[in-house]
Fold:
Amino acid sequence: MPRFNPFRPGSIVTPGMFSGRLNELVSMEQALFQTKQGNPHHILIHGERGIGKSSLLYCQQLVAEGQIDPFEGEKFRFLAVSLELEPSNTYLDIVEKIGSELQREIAKREPSIEFAKTAWDFLKKWEVAGVKYNDHEQPPKPNEMLDELTFAIDQILVRLGPQVDGIIVFIDEADKPPSSANLGEFVKVFTERLSKRGCTSVALCIAGISTVLDRLRESHESSVRIFQILTLEPLLPLERAEVVEKGLAEALKKNGFEVSITPEAKESISELSEGYPHFLQQFAYCAFNEDRDNVIDIADVNAGALHDERGAIQQLGLKYFQELYFAQIGSDEYRGVLRAMAENLDGWSSKADIRKKIKIKEPTLNNAIRALKAKHIIIPKPGATGVYRLPTKSFAVWIRAFTKAREDVISSPGGNPTQIQADPTTRSGT
Structure:
């Protein structure tokens, strides 16, 4: 009989399933409180892919809107504007997206059509709802549109008055636009112009992988300084266990019967994920699917991790590391170098350390390092010869899980290592 699987790999986690991040949540709530009092605090969340940035951003949006109670004090009543950036976005696109989303939020709250028309006349200059620029009009200039956006925000706050605590603009995937989009310049100019207009209850909360810091600095050196920066690290073991427990509690509500998990299985999911929320959701999801007796045990976790193209290992490989581990590498000896380096996670590994961990001929090792470095799969240490690291900790975590899964299959009675594809884009292989 079909069962509701509560785990959501690759998706934003709902508040009921959200675990950990207590320090970050407290910091973000303090920023909301300060903004409400007319002292805007801007937040920048960064970390690796799969670390839970989007889920944290969404949770904080619900707190800002008053859909979730804060840890202390009364509910907030911010007007929340949420958007995601794309690789093709320009400076003008960023301004337009904020304006369009703000217009939609106003339409939900403000019954006066005349007010909406008055406040958003400037949107006529954009391609909104399929309406192109008028033939006789020139495309708007970014600075002009930014002026009109901040003016409209000022008018909205005056009109809504005590109905709202202010406006919070949530921007996800902030690392995606190219340098030419000048996100840093937008951030700096947007916040300064709001201050000059006396709009002191408007704040930005943006999230992206850690390259977003460099992307901001490229277009305006001081743009990063306006933010309180929160760096997301992997979840702690107790927090990982809580994720699994909350998921099974949700399954009980939906299915009407309990699915339990053995301590060994829970610990295995925790170890395989090493605290990366998306990894944790993927391993738990696949283990839940493999279970047939409503008790998830270590066999279910292993089967869920290894199950051909549907297994957690293969799915994570396809979603995150296909290019790095398979598509650009044709030799398993070269992958052996990566497996040796993964033992240090994203720490530095010397050539001598790698040589001790794997059996490889010296010319092959030299060729492997040269090729991996040229393809940016490993990163050399500045000022040090023969010292390298993997580009991200999550890449190392996946390599370790992949390696452990292969070893568990081979060492198990009747184990068949061909259960794990060497290349997740194929159905066969070793």
In short: The radius of gyration is 25 Å. Residues 408 and 414 are 11 Å apart (CA to CA).
